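chain and backbone:
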Amino acid sequence: MDFDHSLNTAIKKLRQALCDDKKKPRFVETLPKRGYRFLVGVKRPAPSSAPREIPVAAPATAQEAAVSRWVGRVAKVCCDDGVSFSVVPIDEAASAERQRLDAANDDVGLSLLIASQRLIMLPVGTPVRIIEVHQAHARCHARVLEGEHYGKTALLPLKLLAESEELGSVRGPRQWNLVS
C-alpha cells in the first residue's frame, strides 16, 4: 500500500516536471490495474567518468558569457532581515500583477495570487536550478528542486540566490556575481 502511494506520487511529480497530462499523455501512460509505461524511448547515458559536455553557441559578449555560466547550476533561496521564506511569482504576468497589487496595498489581491499559486512561498534554503537568467532585470527563471512546489518554475530576483554546490552546503551568504 505504501509502495503504491509512493509510486503514484513519484509519477505525479514526474508528470509535473515533464508538463505531461495523464488524460492525454506524451511521456508516461497509466495502464489501469497494471502500472505505468513510458511512451518514448529511454536511453541510458554512456558510462563515463567525466561529465558529458553539451555544445552551446558562443555568447556574443563577455556579459552574456558570465550570465550563461549560471544556467543549469543549483542555487539556494536566501532572504534578508531574518525572514524564513520568500514569496515569488511563477512568471512575468504574476510578477506584473504583484507589482500592481503592492502599489495599491491590496493584501486581498496578494492573498488570491498566493491561493491560486501564481505566487509561491519558498522557504530559505530551498534548492533551485537556474533555467534562464535575465541580466537586464536582475532575475532568473528557476526550477524548484524540493518541497511543496517541487518541479514548478519561479521567477526569482538574483539577490535572493546564494551559491550552492549541487545541493551541498551553501558557501556563505554571498550573492551571485554575474559580471565575473
Residues 53-59, 166-180 have pLDDT under 50 and may be disordered. The chain has two domains: 2-38, 62-175.
